[in-house]
Amino acid sequence: MNSIKTIVNNQKLYFSNEKTRDISFRKKQLEKLYKSIKQHENEILIALKSDLNKSAFEAYETEIGMVYEELKFMLKNIKNFSKPRRIKTPLMHFPSKSYQYHDPYGCVLIMSPWNYPFQLTLVPLIGAIAAGNCAVVKPSNYAKETSRVILKILSEFPQEYIAVVEGGRDVNNALLEEKFDYIFFTGSPLVGKLVMEKAAQHLTPMTLELGGKSPCIIDKTAKIDLAAKRVAWGKLLNSGQTCVAPDYIIVHESIKNEFINALKKYIEVFYGKNPEKNPEYPKIINKIHFDRLSELINNSENVYGGKTNSETYQIAPAIIDNCQWDSLVMKDEIFGPILPIISYNDFDEIIKQINSRPKPLALYCFTESKTIENKVLKSVLYGGGCINDTVLHLANPYLSFGGVGESGLGKYHGKESFYTFSHTKSVLKRGTSSDINLRYAPYKDNLKLIKKILK
How much is the average pLDDT of 9-26? Predict the structure, then answer.
């Protein structure tokens, strides 16, 4: 492996030969990536089982399948996305035509997290390739087996085009010292601030995909049983280690007990009476996070479930009833299978409480009331979400994904991935058949004329 500085310099040199700008070249690279993933699919499943104890179905559903969908979508649309766009031109610029061109940035850095280590590495990379960039990929050091397979897959590309750099914090710091043309980071808000600080030294543009406490509202008109089923599914994907997982539940007081009972039922239906011993139930990534989550449970009252298995790092889903807004479990993003329950009577007060906190990455609302639905959509600022479901907005390549405020900066997925890794260059092409003297000095009465034109 070459030094990081050498890799970056070689990629910038490779980019300068303009090979990556050719659309047929980009399509060939995406097809090559698709084929390589297919060839290593079983290794990916084994790696995700080792790192996070993901079942084959969950690994395919939330990681490999989403990458395939993104690849197919981009291959189908890349030619159209890449076309220059004709833009309207004001009459006063006659004779002129205006266009927008989409240029790649150059050498981009993609830093991915451990919770969905395959999908959250490859989906941004697909956008970077489609837009015509070279890329340095830095997978998480916590998901070592998946990182190893990613290295194997991407080693089929020349390093001066796509390079994988493995390692811990020292490697991260060394990468951030380099002057990349774009940085795409997925991770915690705390680390995101450090990445942004480093990028600012080079004025490097970036996308930050972060997280936060995503609320889930259960209105009194909701179909309770279905809501509980969909909340349990969304919360317990990857054992709650999902940036868009419902972080806490806000349920109307009149249906709280019925909802909690339905939630308990579906936890047992999905993972049995002892989820912490279920071989298909995902584990917590490491001891640090396992201990942190265990402590949250131990320091809470009114807990249902939450048994821990220190040998496998599995934690049974824990429902914490009668939480308050200032409860310990409400301070930071949980990122685990713990679900605080807050009850309410006054819907407007709930909106005020959510809006008084950092803007969440996701918000979910279960309701049969159009009034409640419209109130949520109109009054709350958040990255994205669902009405009457959880998480699924993330899996739609036609929907952009990203946070707002402390939950993120920028967006991607589908078309937005292409534009995220592209600079939109605006060009006005001026005709030479005639030239109006209005804009030239001496101005004389030109001010009166231009006011009439622009009126």
Answer: 97
pLDDT grade for 25, boundaries at 50, 70 and 90: very high
Provide mean pLDDT across the span 94-113. Answer: 96
Cβ count within 10 A of residue 324? 10
Q: pTM score > 0.70 for this model? A: yes
Cβ-Cβ contacts under 8 Å for 199 (sequence gap 6 or more) = 176, 183, 205, 206
Closest by Cα among 76, 118, 116 to 414: 76
As annotated, the active-site residues are 209, 243
Task: Give the pLDDT confidence score for residue 1 in this predicted structure.
Answer: 55
Q: Residue 369 has which token pair?
A: 């009331």
Mean pLDDT of all residues belonging to the chain: 96
Neighbouring CB atoms inside 10 A of 254's CB total: 10
The residue assigned the tokens 């009114």 is 302
Would the pLDDT of 372 be above 70?
yes
Question: Which residues have CB under 8 Å from 77's CB, separation 6+?
Answer: 414, 415, 418
Handedness of CA 109, 110, 114, 117 (dihedral sign): negative
Which of 113, 163, 146, 187 minimizes the C-alpha distance to 37?
146
CA distance 197 to 211: 18
**Higher pLDDT, residue 90 or 220:** 220
**Separation of CA 138 from chain center:** 16
List residues bridging with 366 in a β-sheet.
218
Cβ burial 417-446 (10 Å sphere, 16+ → b, else e): bbbbbbeeeeeeeeeeeeeeeeeeeeeeee
User: In 3D, which of 159, 133, 164 has the Cα closest to residue 149?
Assistant: 164
Residue 309, pLDDT > 60, answer: yes
